Amino acid sequence: NTPVETREFQAEARQLLQLMVHSIYSNKDTFLRELISNASDALDKLRLETFRDKDLQADTSDLHIRLDVDRVQRTLTVRDNGIGMSRDDVVNLIGTIARSGTAEFLRKLKEAKDAAASQDLIGQFGVGFYSSFMVADKVVMVTRRAGEEQGTRWESTGDGTYTLEPAEDAPQGTSVTLFLKPEDTEDQLFDYTAEWKLKEIVQRYSDFITWPVRLEVERKDAEGKTTREVETINSMKALWARSKDEATEAEYKEFYKHISHDWNDPLETISLKAEGTFEYQALLFIPSHAPYDLFMRERKRGVQLYVKRVFIMDNCEALMPEYLRFVKGVVDAQDLSLNVSREILQQDRQIELMRRRLVKRVLSTVKTMMSENPERYATFWREFGAAVKEGLLSDTENRGAILNIASFASTHDADKPTTLREYVDRMKDGQEHIYYMTGASRSVIESSPHMEAFQAKGFEVLVLTDPIDEMWVDSVPEFEGKRFQSIAKGEVDLDSEEKAETEQQNEEFAALLSWLTTRLKDNVKEVRLSSRLTTSPACIVGDAHDLTPTLEKMYRAMGE
Ligand code: ADP
Ligand code: MG
Question: Which residues bind ATP per the record (predicted)?
Answer without folding.
Answer: 34, 38, 80, 85, 100-101, 124-129, 174, 342
